[in-house]
Amino acid sequence: MLARLGLTDERAASLTRDLNTILEHMSVLAKVDTSGASEVAGVGAAGMRLRADKGPSVPLHEPPASFAPEMRDGLFIVPRLATHEDTGSA
Amino acid sequence: VTVAEILGAIRAGKSSPSETVKEALKRARSADEQDQLNIFLARADRQARDHAATLDADARARDAAQLFGVPFAAKDNISVAGLQVSCGSKILAGYVAPYTATVIERLRAAGAVLVGKTNLDEFAMGSSTENSAFGPTKNPLAPELVPGGSSGGSAAAVAAGIVPIALGSETGGSVRQPAAFCGVVGVKPTYGRVSRHGLVAFGSSLDQIGVFGTDVADAALATKIIAGRDDNDATTADVPVDDYVAALDMPMKGVVVGRPKEYFPAELDPRIAALCERALDRLRQLGAEVRDVSMPHTALAIPVYYVVAPAEASSNLARFDGVRYGLRASGDGLRGMYEASRSQGFGPEVTRRIMLGTYVLSAGYYDAYYRKAMLVRSLIADDFRKVFASGVHVLFTPTTPTPAFPFGSKSDPYEMYLSDIFTCTANLAGVPAISVPIGRVGKLPAGGQFMAAHFDERRMFGAAGALERALGREAHT
Predict the structure, then answer these.
(1) Whole-angstrom distance, CA of residue B14 vs CA of residue B9
(2) What are the tens digits of pLDDT across the range A53-68?
(3) Which residue of chain B comes nearest to A55, CA vs CA?
């Protein structure tokens, strides 16, 4: 549901097998003693700073209407929500 | 052909940017149309010819611009206004970038001319280019084998002699691994060293744009040009950029080269191990001290990487939903449209990673997988911190556990993931790394990797340049 992928039953079954195999390899992580470790990844890009809180400074070469699937009056057009939306499954 | 040779010919009046670019475009066409290597997803013939013509008329730039008239290629996940940026995916097929990445602007400002966009594993997820929606790239040195990935097209473009430099992107080794497989130089700069403005995001705490070069000098020059603070990428660091080209003359006497035992496991291809030992011997002969060190958490890097990278990918790729750009497929209502667009647009590996990433981030599993992986990641980063604090200047390891492999030979996803075993640690720790050719296994190239402390590209290039000179022709035989 969260991945919004709409998989067929057949595809979902083979994917489940793949993911179970992959996750089995991940189980080694559970055995690692991380009691002294900090969650901060510490990738080390020292000196980062935030830019000014304003819109993007880069003008687009083409307007969004040139690449949007559907646009009208400056708005992206999407299909209506279906009434059974909340009962759907991934 | 190296950058120095191209510049020499242009400055001596023996060639011009237009002639140089015309030759590169001809080689690009021939590689794909006659040799069927499938290197380029889009060629930029018109843009390249127009750009070269403006350079022809610019006599002042000829002696000043560091890459005057030098052709280059860029991976097709880096945006260039007016050209497609497909990311090797059906979901972005035909999508034309509305702006240009900072790295492209910087190379162009130095006089380099973009000739085309290169093939890649879909959204840079893979180690062979077999995951490209537009067919795999073949290794120019052995067309029955993969060129590596995910930046396989860029590696092949340099290896085939089409361009002396090319841009790729790295999340877990996607520049260094194909560089090793294709016998060229591949650089992953420090996290924050090079702007990612205009790079389509995959794993935001891991991604860096990297460089392929015919030799270390070309790679060092291109890295120097693209490095540095960019106001359009808040993750670029305010750290001065050293002269990486001048660093190539760094004497090796007194340099401490760490040899981490975990990167030389019993299962390592013995022929690659032997080439690494020869390289270490050459470094010793140059006066370096080779020191055995241990980085005990190395074996955990692949499990950590394949939790963290898919988690970030599942979030970054949520934007591809058929609303603002890319493929839209019709379905029942809004959610049906999302699901139809994404299931038709994404290939199997991308789907697998989105599912994996969504799973490890979901409530109930977050602590067991994602949080745990981030904690172990900090232990891997600590291994690097400790080894560099102990007086080691650079680390030397093999780049890959094997040379290039045949198409279709790795059908188990996890087996393919193991191709990144020696490279993904640098991405997890954020340190710079380079792969340089160190010899051949039969006819296939092997790569050796140097890694250095954060922002110490200077010493990394210095050691790589010294090894390249010491090996001479042995690096390619």
Answers:
(1) 5
(2) 776 667 888 888 999 9
(3) B232
